[in-house]
Amino acid sequence: MATTIRKAVISSFSTDPSLSNVAVVSAPLPAPGKKEIQVRVLYAGFSGADVNMARGTYPMQRKAPLTSGYSLVGVVAALGANADASRSPIGSYVAAVTTYDAQAELVNVAQRLLCPVPPELTGSDSLLRQVAALSLDWATAYGMVEHTARVQAGQKVFIHGLSGAVGKGLMSLCLLRGATVYGTASVRNHASLEAAGATKVFDYRNKDWIAALRATGGVNAVFDPLGFESWDESFSVLGETGILVGYGGNQAALSADKKPRSPWPWIAKLVTRSLLPLGGRRTSFYFIKPGSAGWQADMAALMGLLREGRITVPIKAVWDLDTEGLREAHRSWGSMPGMGSLLIRVAGESA
Ligand SMILES: NC(=O)c1ccc[n+]([C@@H]2O[C@H](COP(=O)([O-])OP(=O)(O)OC[C@H]3O[C@@H](n4cnc5c(N)ncnc54)[C@H](OP(=O)(O)O)[C@@H]3O)[C@@H](O)[C@H]2O)c1
Fold first, then answer.
1. Domain 150-285 listed as CATH 3.40.50.720
2. Which residues belong to any copy of the Enoyl reductase (ER) domain (predicted)?
3. For the domain bounded by 3-135+313-345, which CATH number is listed?
């Protein structure tokens, strides 16, 4: 039986600052499919992916209209006929990367995409918010640090957007590994990032970091969510055996004119660099693999670190699931003060 829910809708692709293409509407949700779980969403993630999806520039995205919401933490509300009740009991807490549809009161999710959240992490709203941010932002950071770059103690890394959602995760995980961290952020965030362990933070409005890093002999890994020309600059600061890991195309949305650009030629260039004779230098584009065994294992590792108090996930802002809240999230992404992950509160506690 269908249920009426409130959900976010991107009705068309547009760069119009009025954001009239973004709204929260009431709409029917069917009962979960055979292998689906219906989840009551507490918090959904908000990220550069949502902004790029509303602009129509997210790689391989759905056509409009679509419901945004890349990740969630929530509670199992109903099971499809062939879903495994022992894996997702009604009332249990789950996290997921759904790519779409999480900014909604209820969502039907393929069971394989869900990861159980242990009871030790469900006791407070603060912990649930952190788990919501782990599922996409920090799982992406963990995958790049542990599996793609394989950061080791004593290595030097450079992280664009240290203050960002994924950037903050990258910084904490590289520091846990014993690496020396350099990166970029707004000047207003430099002191707290350096107090938290970054060796040197640069202003992204100039290119001073390029000469400074070359002067150190280059770095072992660069993590770059900006894409486009930024990947050429990032490649230029690699040491002889360094790796450049690209994972987004934020540069267009963050530029002054915000003109939409296709990321594809630049992704192709990044990936083909690894096919050329580069000496020891490598390149990679990282994609999170929602629900995969690797993602499940990474989430288990991250939730373990959170439980042990070895990581704390900063939450920069939380907006309510209503049209004004959602438009404000789109409007202020990339320019608001603070550091860390962004969330949409669907049914979690008020701040
Ligand atoms: N490939 C994957 O699997 C995957 C998974 C998750 C996310 N992503 C991608 O990762 C990217 C990161 O997104 P996010 O949501 O975590 O964003 P974010 O990093 O939180 O974005 C904001 C960051 O950008 C910085 N910034 C603002 N203006 C800038 C400018 N003009 N130049 C350089 N940096 C600037 C901000 O610094 P200040 O706040 O200090 O000003 C802040 O650190 C997105 O493109 C998303 O699609 C990819």
1. yes
2. 17-344
3. 3.90.180.10
